[in-house]
Amino acid sequence: MKAVFCAGCQAKMSVDEVALNQRLLGMQIGSFFCVTCLAGRLGTTPKHLQTLIVRFKEMGCAYFTRLMEESSDEKTNDRM
Prior knowledge:
Blueprint: H1 15-25, H2 35-42, H3 46-59, H4 62-79
Helix pairs in contact: 1-4, 2-3
């Protein structure tokens, strides 16, 4: 996965943050937000969103597994 930066604060985002945005806001979103900025936009706390990330990963949510696989494939290709 190419580097993704928060539309709010320009922080580099993790794969989990990108997956959370897609899970909560939909696959076709144009802007991504870090956990802190997303929490502000949704009226919740970053801690609550981190809890959701853990829960979605434990459930085997396809958004998280797909992005993790893509990220892993890119690291493998970078080594070649």
